[in-house]
Each structure stands twice: as structure tokens, then as C-alpha cells.
């Protein structure tokens, strides 16, 4: 989602009004950010119904906590609240690996919003691949999963990720590296299940 | 400028940042110089790069519903904030009413809490004041021994409960006032 200068001015005004208790203004912010927040929750938690609860909770908490926002990236601040709501949800569920739940419910992962014109085979293949990536994400340690989602799915900068996770830049870099390596290793282990053209190249590996 | 030569462990630590273009120019040069001569690290970079590509091409899920807030969602505050005030105030009122009734109707015996040590001997003037004091208003020091031990320091209790009630009512009023300020425009 791109933010031109005009939109930024609107956003600052919306935030200001929301901080004074204007729910209508806040709901305009909700409409702007609900898709990425929901997607963050979905990739963190692995199930659509649980992600809906977490996303709703995140926005309620954000409205109540607005006085504590003092500028900087509103997106990062919002994601930090969403991440905490997701972590609370994970704790509530006893830290069951997310991937187990995804496997139990085949239709838990909603279909993508729109697919380009592909043959049915291509659609099925890429869906299988996406499932593998989602499972790999679900098995990844929580902090690495969050860093990878924020960077590679939500496109935040390193500084924004540091803000959203409340950690130092060095920690962000370390978690990103380990998370991405984790997924790489996971997909390599799965390679027997993936169609030929989607396998990660492993020349030179035993 | 002399280029620093770096080894595989260092390069592998930096691969993620290298992919993100998040390194200074000298670091980039050092990494690329190493990669030129190291097929293993090139392979490592390629597989890491593919994993990142797959993550980035994960389709975004469609929004299942709207997450906009209603005023009910926002005003439904945690229990402690709202009706706990009222509950505490109600309990304090009941207790106060009980002690007032007991005091006035006489079914609660007047007296002080039993003192472990004997009270200091009152002076002449003090004694006369004590004897002249009305029965309802009661002194804080030890009074006459008869029927004193085991009773209730009613005035103290009434004052305490009354103050508590006032504090609770003030707290409720303050919290309502703050909520009014935050009402949507």
C-alpha cells in the first residue's frame, strides 16, 4: 500500500482526531490498515478464525492506547500492538505449533484474493507450494516468524521492524537471517514432496 | 583503498542484509569479492534468495470482514473499570447503613476495641470531662471498664466507612467524567 504525501497529511489529522476520542476518524484508519493487520495475524497464527479475533482485539487495544503514540511510523506502532495480540493468542492456545492446526483444517487458509490467468495445474502446484511456505512459517520460532512476516510479507524497513518489535537493529537482522534460513532448510527437507520446477536448487548439497 | 578479505562465516552472517541492500558500500564490496571465489557461499545466497522470493510471493488473504469499531466495543471496558466502582460503593453503603442503624437502634454495643495495655491514668480534669461526656459520642482512649471491652468503636467505623464511600463516589464521578470527554465527536 503506497502513501502519497496527500494521504500522509490526512493520516496525521486522522490520528490526531482519534487521539481525542473521535471513533469515526479512527475507523478510517482501521479501513486503511485492516488488510495488512489481518494478514499479519493470519501468518502468525495460521488459522483464519483465530486471526480475526486477534485482528479485532488489536484495533480495540490500539484505539484505547492512542495517547501513547507519539509520532514515528504509525504502521509500525499498529503492528506492534497486533503482534502482542497475536502473542497473547498463542499463549492462550498453549503454544501449539501453528502448522498442526493448519493441517487439521484444510480450508483454514483462505484462498488468495485474485489469481492471474493460470492453467489449473499451475494453480494447484503453486497452491501446494504456498501451503508449504505457510507451514514452514508456522513451525518457525515465534520471534523469527514475526520478523520474517514484517519484512518479507509486510515490507517494513529494518527500523520499522525494530520499532514494531521493541528490539535493537542487530536483533532484527539476526532474527531475519535465522528465520529465512529456517524456511530455506524446511523447504529443502520438503523437497521430495514438491514438484520438480518448484524445488529449491540444491546443487552441491549432499 | 585496501579491500578487507572476509571468510565464509562472516559472509553467511551478512547474506540476509546483503539481500535487503542494507549494507554499507565497503561491506558489499567485501561480500561480492568473497562470492566471486566461493561457490559454496554463492549457493547459500541462491537458496536463501529463493526462500525470500517464495515468502514475498505468498498471496495476501482477502479480508474476511470489516474490523471497524463500534462504540459498544470500545466502551465495554474491563470489569474493574466500570461496575466494580458501583459494587464497592454499594457494599460500603450497606455496611455504613448497618453500623448507623446499629448505633442508633442500640443493638450494637458501644465500646472500644480491647486494649492490650492498661490506659494511662487520666488526670483529675480528664476524669471529670469523661464523666460529663454524653454516652453516644465516645472517647478514643479507654473509657470505663464496664461493658467497654468487646464492643464496637462505632464512631470510628462510621467515619471510616463514610470516608470510603465518599472516595468511591468521587472515583466513580471522575471516571464517568473522563469517559464523557472521550465520547466520539
Please, could you describe this protein's structure?
- The complex is a heterodimer of chains A (206) and B (185).
- By secondary structure, chain A is mainly α.
- Chain A has two domains: 1-96, RNA polymerase sigma factor, region 2, helix turn helix motif (Rna Polymerase Sigma Factor, Chain: A, Orthogonal Bundle); 118-199, Winged helix-like DNA-binding domain superfamily/Winged helix DNA-binding domain (Arc Repressor Mutant, subunit A, Orthogonal Bundle), CATH 1.10.10.
- Chain A has nine helices and no strands.
- Chain A has helices spanning 5-19, 23-45, 48-64, 74-92, 98-104, 120-139, 142-153, 158-165, 169-189.
- The longest helix of chain A is centred in the first third of the chain and has 23 residues, at 23-45.
- Chain A is globular.
- The model of chain A is unreliable at 100-108 and 202-206 (pLDDT under 50).
- Chain B folds into two domains: 8-56, no CATH class; 71-181.
- In chain B, helix 1 (8-20) packs across helix 2 (25-36) and helix 1 (8-20) packs parallel to helix 3 (39-56).
- Chain B contains seven helices and no strands.
- Chain B has helices at residues 8-20, 25-36, 39-56, 71-75, 83-105, 124-132, 154-181.
- Chain B has 185 residues and is mainly α.
- Mean pLDDT of chain B is 75; it is low at 133-148.
- In chain B, 58% of the residues lie in helices and 0% in strands.
- Chains A and B meet through helix 2, helix 3, helix 6, helix 7 and helix 9 of A and helix 1, helix 3 and helix 4 of B.
